[in-house]
Each structure stands twice: as C-alpha cells, then as structure tokens.
Structure prediction request, 345 residues.
Amino acid sequence: MTSTASAPAAAAADADARALDILRRHGHHTSAFLAFNSETRHFTAPGIDGLVAYRPAGRRHVFQLCGPFAAEEDQDRLLQAFLDWARSEGRRVTAVQLRKQDLERYANAGFVVNQLGSSYSIDLEQFTMRGTRFMKTRNKVSRARRLGLEVQELTPEDLERPAIAAELDAIDATWLRTKGRFAKQLTFMIGERGGRGQPYRRVFITRLEGKALGYVTYSPAFGDTAGWLYDLTRRHVEAPPGAVELVFHTVVEQLREEGCRWLHLGLTPLVGLDTEHEAEGAYSEPVRRFVTLLSERGEKVYPAKTQEQFKTKWGPHVIEPEYMGFHKRPSIGAVWGLLRLTRAV
Prediction:
C-alpha cells in the first residue's frame, strides 16, 4: 500500500517518466532534453500524445521552451490548447528556441517571430582536428596533457558521493566569482547539474594531481540527429589553458568509439543574426533592431561572442537559426520577464 506521504512523489515520478518518454519519441529539437529541467513544467492536453514545456514568469507571462513535442499532425492542436490554457490563466505566451520548421505554425497561430541566435552541431563522422585551422586547439590539448591533466567520466554512483558533489560545488563557486560580483547561474535555456535529469546526463571532470579543475556535462539528444548535447562548462580559476579543450577532445573521441553520430553545441543567443533568416511577414523590425543592438553591445548581459568563438573553433557542420515568438505582439514586459527568468539580469 502506498502511504499518503509517498503518493505525491509516486505521481510526480510517473509524470516525469511519461514526459521523458514523449521527449524520446517526439523531441527532435537538439535541445529537447532541457525541457526536463527540474523547474520546467509540462502542459498536456486530453487525447494528444505530447507536451509543451514552459515556465511561468510573474503574474502575466509564460515562456514556452521549443515547439510542441508531439507528432507533426498533433502539434497545431497541442499549441492551440496551450494558448487557450494561457489565456484562461491571464498570461501571454512567449516561445523561445523555435526552429525554422516551426515558423509557419507559429505565424499561423498569431505569433510575431524573430531570430534569437544560432545553434551549432558537429557531425562526428566528418569531424577532424587536422589542418592549420585547429593548430592552436591541438597545441592547447597537447599542453594540457603534458601538464598532467586527466579526464574522467563520473559514474551515477560517483555523482551521489558527497566528496564528488563538494568538488563540483567548489568549481561552480570559483567559476561564478570570475563572472563578477552580481553574476548568477543562468537557467531555463541551459542545462543543470542534478535534478530529475541527472541519471540521464554524462559528466566529465578534469583533474591535475588529484585536484578537480573543471567539468562538462552532456545531455542526451533525441530524434533525427540523436547524440549528445554539450551543455554546462565549468572551469576552476586555477585550471590551466587547455583544460576545457582537453575534455572536449577526449569526449569526442569516446563518442566516436561508441558509434555516436552527432554532438550538438546548443543555442548561443544573439549570434549569427541575419535578416535573411527572418520570417517574411511575421517578424518585428523593432525587435530585430533591439536584438541586433544586444548582439553588438550586450556582452555584459550575455557573453555571446565568447560562446560563439568557442563553438565555431570546432568547425561545426550545421549552423541553424533559432527564434523567439511573441503571441499577438512583442512587449517590453515579455523581454524583461525572459531576462529575469534566465537570470541574465
């Protein structure tokens, strides 16, 4: 018999299992696993095999992550059901990390859609570090190895050990201090350490003479380009140059040995912007100018250029625009709500 105290936990576990099953079957977005972050909620509608991932913000806004996770023939109905629910709650919907194939659907549903940034993917069957383009990166990896840095994948049992958790916490703390006095961990459109998704992620840590100096997490990617999503990168202030590159290269080689085809690097907001990517007749010119201004002068809000440089130096084979959509019309309140939700401000 299930006790009343454990019944809510059992129901939550069942809901999580159903959500993960939907993401595995319908999560074609390379960042779909981010919908499984602990604070992200899942909207479902009767008779539809799918979900919408979202988070409320304040009293008037709700932010949807990616498009509807459902079969193609069910996505319009699921999106409309979500919009109806949001209206009944007195909230306006803003969607982020939409893909190009979502544009027509969202325009038809009354959204104004603008490019938010670009996402990057590496085809591991084509990837190589040969040639002059990768000379600096190869030198960094070689230097890190000569210094004695080692890379280890942490097992699920390792991640449950208090000593390991303390090491990772210490890396987080020193990494955050390098970002400035008021910096916070970003959230929502980025992965997390721990939470309900922890058993499904992979964590690689680098050490020098036993001291933990950095780690990188990888989340599963489903759908047509199944593989792994390069997610959190945390580097201790004492880590020598090349520590992160060594982890990256080590993981690439391991994934290829395992037969993995795709390594996704995820969305970088505010980069790769181009008017050619905008949805004709469905985008806002003021929003386009605002996003461009942030791209040019908003490094304090988000280190977009640094992220872009790191991702492009690996020679990604696929670069795709990603979008944000405002239901009915753009609003300053929605933009501010998104910045607050992601802890960018």
